[in-house]
Structures are given as structure tokens and as C-alpha cells.
Amino acid sequence: MFTFLSSAIAAISGLLMGYELGLISGALLHLRSILALSCKQQEIVVSALLFGALLASLTGGFLIDRFGRRIAIIIASCLLVLGSLILILSASYGILIVGRTAIGISISLSSIATCVYIAEIAPQHRRGLLVSLNELMIVVGILSAYISNYVFTNISHGWKYMFGLVIPIGALQAIAMYFLPPSPRFLVMKGNDEAASNVLGRLRATSNTAEELTVIKSSLKDEHQYNFLDLFRSKDNMRARMLIGLTLVFFVQTTGQPNILFYASTVLKSVGFQSNEAASLASTGVGVVKVVSTIPAIVFVDQVGSKTFLCIGSSIMAVSLITMGLVNLNIHMNATNICSNQSLEDSIFHGAENMSASNQSLKEQFAGVPFQGRTWLTTLRKFEIAKTEEQNSTAMAGGRASAASQTGSHVVTDTVEVPAALKWLSLASLLVYVAAFSIGLGPMTWLVLSEIFPAGIRGRAIALTSSMNWGINLLISLTFLTITDLIGLPWVCFIYTIMSLASLAFIIGFIPETKGCSLEQISMELAKKRYAKSSIFRIGQRREKLVPIELPKRDLHEQFY
Description:
Elements: H1 2-34, H2 39-67, H3 69-89, H4 93-121, H5 127-151, H6 158-164, H7 166-178, H8 184-189, H9 193-204, H10 210-222, H11 238-254, H12 257-270, H13 276-304, H14 306-329, H15 344-349, H16 360-365, H17 374-397, H18 401-414, H19 420-439, H20 441-452, H21 455-487, H22 489-510, H23 519-526, H24 529-533
Helix pairs in contact: 1-2, 1-4, 1-5, 1-6, 1-7, 1-12, 2-3, 2-4, 2-21, 3-4, 3-6, 3-7, 4-5, 5-13, 11-20, 11-21, 11-22, 12-13, 13-14, 13-19, 14-19, 14-20, 14-22, 17-18, 19-20, 21-22
């Protein structure tokens, strides 16, 4: 019971990480109007978190080994609280970047430390369940963020409440972690065997810990067989394994899922969910689908196999993406330019104080009129359109027809309604795409990475792939709105379709099917020379040549984004 409680408290980091990843989707709808953010500035706001995460992923391993897993989680929680306070106490573009970067460092450090901490305190027969708890908490956090986006979408300064919700949770986690024990493995690493034995006694509720302590010492000795540079050498085919891992992580990012996570509300608003409230509610469906899809993937991976889930996921992603692209070709409302000029309702939502001086007379006409949903908005649109037509007539008489025509055109364009069938078909294809990722590339990538590397160098290999994961995520998120602005959302979907098909071909050709094989068998087979010369890894087909033994239920091992 104490082990589960300790794991649950540590897994709060996953909840906070998922929340921060999904939060910006809705907060961006507020911030872009309040701060008058350009397309590039919106991308930088989103990517600041990823930049911080990349920095932490490069140094996180050293910090965790130097100061301990528990202390790293406490530091990460405190940094999250600090970053959130910075965000809510100042509403400027520069401070927003600083706060988001601090939060990025926090979630990256905590994601590594949490998975390692839980894996090291969990008993062998419960490790898969307890480590997967962190994975589940991440998607629950994403769902919580989307719900928060919807709840606070019509509240003045709602973005501050969104950012501030994590402050008490982060503070409570830091306090609770202070009273939890360090991991036994870390204590052994520091030469404190007696303290490690006492901690094991508390975690296992027994005084007989000598056997497990011996196993920990033995595994630490095995880790000295490899050094970091071995990842790029032919020793035990480590170079080939590393290329497989890096390529798999590359496809995780280039199939577009991170952009759906960060820009869900923006994308949904561009395809017909015109109000902030409607876009935020629709994106909540994305979070629900993500949670529901992740659960069966975790539960049935041992029976179905990670490679099968990867193939199914990539195939469905390709179909749903091409459907989404074809649908969006027939949607002409903001389908190309989804981030430049904000619609009238964005300005209205954030109050009269955000309207330009040219709309002063309009503000006076509506002073004291309560907001009553779409009816009030429609009426206000009519006033604005009528006002624009009057300005156009005057401008044409004065020889300024061109500029006025452009102004009028902008307003009329924003009022075009998207056919309901296309709007809901676009949402449906988006949800299928998210579900496919959540059963395939999402959870299975990190499971495969934890299996193809030997224990002695697994941590360093996953740290390297994690750094590449954050780096590519940063690059893609930093350019998504710009590229969409240039070529249009449909063509972005078609590019992601091509990448999904490429990932499917790569998975079929190079990813080993490890179902029913122990980690020792997997490592032994991949280390053989003939696998370095072969373009296709087929451990599953060679299983009959392995020594038949009764295999324990395979753990899910460390999984983090």
C-alpha cells in the first residue's frame, strides 16, 4: 500500500505534464487577442515550453543521478509553481515566454525523474502497472486541460485561472514528496546500503530485503559495461538500434500529433467551430478520446503486441488524415489563414476594453447590454457590417474604394458559415486520428525503446531519444501556423498522411515484433551480427529457435513524452 501511495504521489507529475501540454490550446484563444499576438508570436508562445523541455532533457539525467529522483521531482514541482505564478502575475509577451520556458524545464525534468523513481520503488510483479500509471495520468491531465479550457472560455481573464489551477497541486506534490523515501537504487549508487535496506523494508513491508538488495547491486555493476559512445558504435549492433529508436521518435512528431495537442482549439475554430466556447468544447472530445484509447493499448499490449498496435495506428492515422484534408478542401472559412487577423468575436469576448478606438461608438451603443451568447454576437455583427458598408460607400465617393473594399471583404468572409456536415465530419476524422495515435505511436514507441536497448545503457539511450523527441517537437510546433498560413490546412493534412504511410513502411520493415519474448531474448537476438546486415527484424518469426521457457508478464517499463 505504501508503494502504491508513493507511486501515485510521484505520478501527479504526469498529470501536471499532460495539463500543461494541453492547456495552451485554449489559453491561446485568449492570449492572442489580449496581447495582439502575430502568427509567429503564437508559435513562439507554444514552443517556449518545448524549448525549456529540450534544455532539461539534455541535463536532466545528470541532475537526477547527482541529486536523486525524489529531489528532482520536488525541484520540478517548485519550478512549475514559480513558472505559473510568473504567467498569471504579468500579462506581457516577454514574461509569457519566460514563464512557459520555466514550466517546460519543470515538466521535462519531472517526466524523467518520475518514471525512474516509480520503476525503482515498484516490486517486479507490479512495475508495469505502477509505471503505466504515469502514462495514464498524462492523458488524464490533457483531458483536464481541455475541460479547463471550456469552463473558463467565457470568464474574464479565464486564461489566468487556467494557468493558476496547477499551483496548489504542484505545491502539495512537492510537500508530499518531501516525506517520501529516496529510491533504494539511488541509495545504493551513493554507497548507502543500510539506508537502502531500510527503505526496501518500508516499501515491501518486510524485513527480508537482502535478496532484492543483491539484485540491485548486480544490475548496477552490469551498467558499467557500456558508455554513452557505445550507442554510436557497432558493438552489439547498438548503432542500428539507436537509428531505429531515433527514426521511430522522428515519426512520432512528424505525423502531426503534437500540433493537434497544442493547436486543437485553433484548428477546430478554423473549420467551423466559430466561437471560443464551441472550439474548446470540441477539443475536450479530443481529450476524452485520448484517454479512452490509451487504456486498451496499455491493457492488451502483451496479448496483441506492440508492432501490431503500431501498424494499426499508423494505418488508421493515414486514412483519417487524408479524410480530414479532403473535407477541409471544401471548407473556405479560415481554412488557409487560421492565425493572422482575429475574428470580431475574439475582440468582443475579451471585453470592450480590447476593442480599437475606431469601435468606440459601437462600444457605447452596447454599454450595459449583457452577453447572451450567439444572439448578442449576431446582433453586434450586423451593426459592424452595416457600419463597414457605410464606410465603404463614403470611401468610394472619396476615391478610397480599394482599402474599404478590403475591410468589408474581411468582415463578410468571417461571417461565412461552414456546412454542418463538413464541420462534424472534420471533427470526426480528427478524433479518429487522435485515437489511432493513442493506441499506436503514442504509448508503443516508448515501450519499443525500453525493449530494444540492454539494461546497462537503456537509460542513456532513452534520454537521447527523448531529447530528439523534444527537439523535433519544438521545430514542428514553431512552424505549424506559418506553414499552414502558406499552404493551407488541407495540404498540411496531406503531408502528415505521407509521413504516416512512411512510418507504416518503417514499422513493417524495421521494428521487431517482441510479443512473447523476454528482454534478455530480445537483446540477445538484436546483438547478433546477422541482424546488422538484415533490413528486417523478425524476432517473432525466430521464436521457435529460442529456449522455451515460461515467461512472466512483460512490464511496460518507462514511458514518457
